[in-house]
User: Which sequence fits this backbone?
């Protein structure tokens, strides 16, 4: 499915864009010309041979700080997404499969969390317990889980009603094994889409928190923080704001485009449970040609 | 690929000298219709259907018969000037009263559709908008097509809805399947169309409702001189309603003629094969499936498309596509070089040797006093039933009779029942969880829809291996051996183990589902409508297989179906269920020949049937 997605133009472009940003963030610290805390030039100095993208609010090299400030955001976003989707998928699948009061208890608890706006929820936790990295990751993950749970539950309800699940139930196979062997593999396309969507949100929320000062603390470099620090000098040296902003935007667009193509590719794989009319098959092939 | 040939006998297009009460000009004339797939990169376009020619006179019904993938729906939609995505017209004409539909621009077509040509889809529920009241939708149809809304009640009455007021005020989901299909018919007949195309409109309806809908369609066509094209895979239904029959195979019209003649003496080996696959009520025939499966567009064999599966094939058949050969003065024709010989053959069916009644002294399964309610609404009331060892018992009922609920109680999927079900001398607990491993293994279940009963993410080997791994710990080699044996016993090659369900046909999928049930050596096999999603020739093959397996393995079968003729071929005893109650049970021959209950008699008279030659 991923392979098919990559072969579509949409998937290739998305992956290329997101891949470039990830590459910048990953190898950035190694290739940065200066340390991110070194005073290289004057505050908000224009781009020059010394500092290719000019200076930031304290005269540090914008290029170096940009190259340095991405990996933290990416790691946090990835961790938050993985945690959130895993928890949400588990809740959703269990609620759908077992139904009854299990379903009610799980989904009503989820609704409580869902009542908080995502950013407000994270801010609430962080402002009470302090800006710790693990806490931000956890807060973002928890804020994702309810929405993933809702989507997963809806998708699982359809799967658990299929005859192949009934066939396993008749054999007396325990529920958790049926969930693992028969339900979850049929949710991969839904979960792939959720992972992409949540990753995008995670990046935005974590960058947003960092902008608001909850994240890596100065003087460390971080894209969200950079936008906040350098916005007063936007006219003197726009690169201090533009570079991190562009990278965040590209990352979000790339990830989103790629997962969209995964979703499209998966439609052809997951949706084959109906009668295979050869003509419909031809029509589909013809349409994609 | 053959060029659109001029050498088709004229008889094909004008095979209507037999239509007695006509003035000569057909209402609908299809001439050499050819439909292609849209061009794709690197692949030549394949024809989906080609050389389709037939005519329909006003007031007559043409039955277009074919199995899934034969192209019948493609042809039907072309009659409306419509082509599915990926398909395009490749030549030929569709003449409605002499006017070529295919030559019309889209906006002209839109005017004709619904007004001059009406279409009744297979699933009436999906053709009605669920959020609008039926009355609103019907009036809209009337307004759009310029019919007089004042005639609304008359039109509904004609469609068999005598009391229209409650129906007009209802939402589609509040109507029964039969009522929905009547609303569909009323919509179609509202503007007094000249041609009506019906795409399997009775699929999914029970026999009684089907009978009424068929009567309605036929009556409306007669009284308004509408020409009808009735598409179906069900030979018996077509025999009931059609005046002429056209049989499609792999995108070609392979037989054409008066319905009575075609069914009495089929001229094409394929038609003959189809007929041998259809079970009938009157006597127990051996059912014969056809080997192989129809070729797909683009990968059709040289010469006659049916030749690789044909028992009459000779060397000459591989050389070129046969033309239509006329075999009777009334225009009965078939695309087969041996058509005359095939027509002369008598008997499309072989009477089966009476099923040897096995000794049923020790019942494997006995159900007594089982009742089920869904929130105070009784679904099953005091049902009693016995299945003896090596015996095959059918449960027959229309949809909603509770027969599937009974099956689910037996296998433990449904656990809120009262009464006793005894299996091999021990009472069964209601739910799966409280039954012993041994009980679970010995009762196996095969469900109705092979398209949802196999996990699309698992290989056939994994699917068949799952119950085996659960019940017995075998070494890797033994495990594989058992899977191979199970696949072989259902007439699949062991190499199927590596395939995924979406690479299989419906019949192959159902065989895999059977293999999954048989791999753990059960004593009782519960089959819930296992053939209803399959084509007749595939159904026959599955029934053949079930009977063979039963004989070989000494299986007891509980066979749930709505198909009465099928019961004749597969069961020893039959239990008829209506509204959750058993109304009749006994040996098949007795119940089907001398039904004692009024409901059974009604069911039997409603079953569509054709005369066998």
Assistant:
């Amino acid at each position: 499915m991923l392979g098919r997605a990559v072969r579509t133009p949409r998937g290739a472009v998305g992956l290329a864009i997101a891949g470039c940003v990830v590459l910048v963030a990953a190898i950035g610290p190694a290739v940065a010309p200066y340390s991110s805390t070194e005073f290289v030039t004057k505050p908000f100095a224009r781009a020059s041979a010394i500092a290719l993208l000019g200076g930031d609010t304290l005269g540090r090299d914008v290029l170096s700080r940009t190259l340095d400030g991405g990996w933290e955001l990416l790691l946090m976003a990835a961790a938050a997404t993985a945690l959130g989707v895993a928890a949400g998928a588990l809740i959703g699948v269990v609620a759908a499969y077992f139904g009854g009061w299990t379903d009610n208890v799980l989904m009503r608890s989820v609704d409580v969390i869902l009542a908080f706006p995502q950013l407000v929820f994270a801010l609430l936790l962080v402002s009470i317990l302090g800006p710790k990295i693990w806490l931000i990751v956890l807060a973002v993950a928890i804020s994702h889980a309810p929405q993933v749970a809702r989507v997963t539950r809806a998708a699982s309800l359809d799967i658990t009603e299929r005859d192949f699940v009934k066939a396993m139930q008749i054999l007396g196979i325990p529920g958790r094994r049926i969930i693992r062997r028969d339900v979850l593999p049929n949710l991969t396309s839904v979960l792939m889409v959720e992972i992409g969507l949540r990753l995008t949100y995670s990046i935005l929320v974590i960058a947003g928190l960092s902008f608001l000062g909850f994240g890596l603390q100065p003087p460390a470099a971080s894209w969200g923080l950079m936008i906040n620090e350098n916005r007063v000098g936007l006219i003197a040296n726009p690169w201090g704001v533009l570079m991190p902003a562009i990278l965040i935007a590209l990352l979000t667009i790339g990830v989103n485009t790629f997962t969209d193509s995964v979703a499209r590719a998966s439609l052809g794989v997951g949706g084959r449970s109906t009668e295979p009319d050869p003509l419909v098959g031809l029509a589909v092939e013809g349409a994609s040609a | 690929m053959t060029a659109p040939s001029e050498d088709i006998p004229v008889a094909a297009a004008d095979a209507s000298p037999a239509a007695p009460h006509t003035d000569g000009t057909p209402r609908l004339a299809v001439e050499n219709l050819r439909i292609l797939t849209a061009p794709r990169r690197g692949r030549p376009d394949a024809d989906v259907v080609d050389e389709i020619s037939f005519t329909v006179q006003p007031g007559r019904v043409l039955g277009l018969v074919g199995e899934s993938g034969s192209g019948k729906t493609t042809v039907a939609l072309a009659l409306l000037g419509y082509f599915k995505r990926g398909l395009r017209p490749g030549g030929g004409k569709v003449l409605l009263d002499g006017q070529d539909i295919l030559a019309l621009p889209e906006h002209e077509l839109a005017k004709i559709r619904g007004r001059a040509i009406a279409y009744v889809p297979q699933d009436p529920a999906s053709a009605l908008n669920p959020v609008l009241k039926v009355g609103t939708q019907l009036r809209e149809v009337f307004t759009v097509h310029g019919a007089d809304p004042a005639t609304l009640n008359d039109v509904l009455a004609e469609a068999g809805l005598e009391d229209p007021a409650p129906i007009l005020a209802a939402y589609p989901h509040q109507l029964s399947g039969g009522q929905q299909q009547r609303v569909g018919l009323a919509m179609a007949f509202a503007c007094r169309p000249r041609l009506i195309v019906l795409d399997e409109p009775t699929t999914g309806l029970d026999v009684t409702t089907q009978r009424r809908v068929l009567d309605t369609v036929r009556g409306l066509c007669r009284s308004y001189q509408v020409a009808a094209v009735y598409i179906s895979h069900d030979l018996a239904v077509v025999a009931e309603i059609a005046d002429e029959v056209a049989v499609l195979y792999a995108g070609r019209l392979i037989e054409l003629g008066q319905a009575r003649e075609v069914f009495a003496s089929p001229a094409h080996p394929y038609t003959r094969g189809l007929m041998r696959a259809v079970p009938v009520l009157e006597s127990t025939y051996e059912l014969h499936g056809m080997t192989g499966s129809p070729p797909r567009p683009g990968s059709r064999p040289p010469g006659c498309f049916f030749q690789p599966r044909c028992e009459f094939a000779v060397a000459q058949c591989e050389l070129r596509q046969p033309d239509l050969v006329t075999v009777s003065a009334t225009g009965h024709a078939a695309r087969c070089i041996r058509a005359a010989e095939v027509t002369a053959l008598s008997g499309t069916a072989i009477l089966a040797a009476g099923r040897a009644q096995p000794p049923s002294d020790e019942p494997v399964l006995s159900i007594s006093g089982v009742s089920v309610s869904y929130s105070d609404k009784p679904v099953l009331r005091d049902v009693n039933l016995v299945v003896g060892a090596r015996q095959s018992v059918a449960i027959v009922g229309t949809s909603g009779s509770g027969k599937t609920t009974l099956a689910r109680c037996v296998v433990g999927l449904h656990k809120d029942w009262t009464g006793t079900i005894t299996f091999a001398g021990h009472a069964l607990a209601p739910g799966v969880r409280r039954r012993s491993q041994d009980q679970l293994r010995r009762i196996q279940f095969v469900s109705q829809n092979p398209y949802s009963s196999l996990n699309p993410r698992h290989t056939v080997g994994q699917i068949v291996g799952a119950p085996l791994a659960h019940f017995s710990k075998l070494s890797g080699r033994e495990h594989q051996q058992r899977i191979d044996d199970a696949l072989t016993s259902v007439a699949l090659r062991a190499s199927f183990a590596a395939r995924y369900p979406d690479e299989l046909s419906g019949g192959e999928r159902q065989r895999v589902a059977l293999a999954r049930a048989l791999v753990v050596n059960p004593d009782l096999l519960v089959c819930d409508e296992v053939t209803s999603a399959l084509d007749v020739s595939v159904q026959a093959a599955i029934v053949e297989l079930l009977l063979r397996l039963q004989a070989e393995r000494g299986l007891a079968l509980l066979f749930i179906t709505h198909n009465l003729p099928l019961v004749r071929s597969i069961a020893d005893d039959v239990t008829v269920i209506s509204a959750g109650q058993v109304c009749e049970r006994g040996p098949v021959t007795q119940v089907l020949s001398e039904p004692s209950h009024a409901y059974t008699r009604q069911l039997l008279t409603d079953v569509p049937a054709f005369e066998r030659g």
Observations:
- Chain A touches chain B through 34 residues (CB under 8 Å).
- The CA atoms of residues 116 and 143 of chain A lie 8 Å apart.
